[in-house]
Amino acid sequence: MEKKKRIALPLQIFIGLALGIVAGLCLMGAPEIAVDYIKPFGTIFLNLIKFIVVPIVFFSIISGVISMKDIRKVGSIGVKTVIFYLCTTAFAIVIGLVLANVFKGVFPELAVSGLEYEAKEAPSIMDTIVAIFPSNIIEPFASATMLQVIVASLFFGFGIILAGEKGEAFGKFMESASEVSMKIMSFIIALSPIGVFALITPVVAENGPMILGSLAMVLLVAYIGYILHAVLVYSSTVKLMGGLSPIKFFQGMLPAMMMAFSSSSSVGALPLNIECSEKLGAKKDIAAFTLPLGATINMDGTAIYQGVCAIFIASCFGISLTLPQQLTIILTATLASIGTAGVPGAGMVMLAMVLQSVGLPVEGIALVAGVDRIFDMGRTTVNITGDAACAIIVSKMEEKKEARRAGRTG
Ligand code: ASP
């Protein structure tokens, strides 16, 4: 039977978004209908995303680690990778905050009286570090504590390598589980037009068209941040540290970037990202480790988004953030972006942590939730581009290290 030609997913999503806005405007007289009958479908969509996050992260990191075969190599590459990821993410959040402060004047103060909140105290740095390490095997999975899941997957990956031949069967099972989880994720991504529709409708119905105008501004600020970061940080690092022309880099990355833009999932774009990075000079085993890790912990676009949204939400509630509060945001957004899984909407869930850290109303997320998908398309594109830049740069460093070693022994 001939396959029917389907509308491309990004277009479907825009149709979902546009229909959701129209439905929201129509339901402005009776927003309870949107809240009671449409919003639950948005919740189902978000629940499905949360459901698949943990298996994706767990299995893909294990697959990356076992493909390196040597723990010391994983360690040396791991350190370089994590340093690159942390530095670029901190830079990203600074760009986000600076831009949002510059444009703060155009963010409106909204009538958000219906949203009540109780500011909670943020956990201390030491508590955050302690919380990275799981104390039992089930809990991190049950509570979807991402950093604990990453730590668990590293241990399992190391265990499989160290067990040698006896670990091979388990390793194969993990690789197969990773493939299966990615397939499940692609079903869920296919539901995003409905998810977007169901999320935007209640927001518009409750807030009216004014929310759309102000959201257009905050979206614009985030996109300026995404582009600035890609141009400034990735161009200069791939040129200086990877010896690659920025134009070649972005050209070579285009397929993966388009995939990221349309799927809003770093993990979804992972296979293409591996392919593009390898073509641009990343080594196979390094890409197999840094890219799945990056798809899980390196989220520069998400960090920009979190900075911009934190300032936007504060403005909507008429709150002005002090400098120490903004410094706290840099720290928590870096941590939050590490804990964000590479699936659609995950960054929005982690925004809660950033808002809480400076006592901002978590309910403010409702203001941006309806258009999260549009933020997400851009931030995911930046996220995966950063992962690829890292894979290429670390490969170059390893290449130089090996050449030096060969020079010494030769
Ligand atoms: N969707 C993003 C990604 O996959 C994560 C996020 O929601 O910020 O990279």
Layout of helices and strands:
Elements: H1 9-26, H2 31-68, H3 71-103, H4 125-130, H5 139-142, H6 146-162, H7 168-190, H8 192-207, H9 210-240, H10 246-263, H11 270-279, H12 284-297, H13 300-316, H14 323-339, H15 346-357, H16 365-369, H17 372-409
Helix pairs in contact: 1-8, 2-6, 2-7, 2-8, 2-12, 3-9, 3-12, 3-13, 3-14, 3-17, 9-13, 9-17, 10-11, 10-17, 11-12, 11-17, 12-17, 13-14, 13-15, 13-17, 14-15
The chain binds aspartic acid (ASP).
Q: Care to describe what's here?
A:
By secondary structure, this protein is an all-alpha fold. Helix content is 77%, strand content 0%. The protein has helices at residues 9-26, 31-68, 71-103, 125-130, 139-142, 146-162, 168-190, 192-207, 210-240, 246-263, 270-279, 284-297, 300-316, 323-339, 346-357, 365-369, 372-409. It is globular, with a radius of gyration of 21 Å. The termini are far apart. It binds aspartic acid. Aspartic acid binds next to helix 15 and helix 17.
Question: What are the main properties of this structure?
Answer:
single chain; 410 residues; mainly alpha; 17 helices; globular; binds aspartic acid
- Give the bound compounds: aspartic acid
Q: What fraction strand?
A: under 5%
Helical content stands at over 70%
Please give the oligomerization state of what you see. Answer: single chain
Mean pLDDT: 84
Q: What's the helix-strand series? A: HHHHHHHHHHHHHHHHH
Major β-sheet annotation: none
End-to-end gap = 62 Å
Identify low-pLDDT runs. 115-120
Q: What is the number of beta strands?
A: 0
Number of helical elements: 17
Shape call: globular
Q: Indicate the radius of gyration in whole angstroms.
A: 21 Å
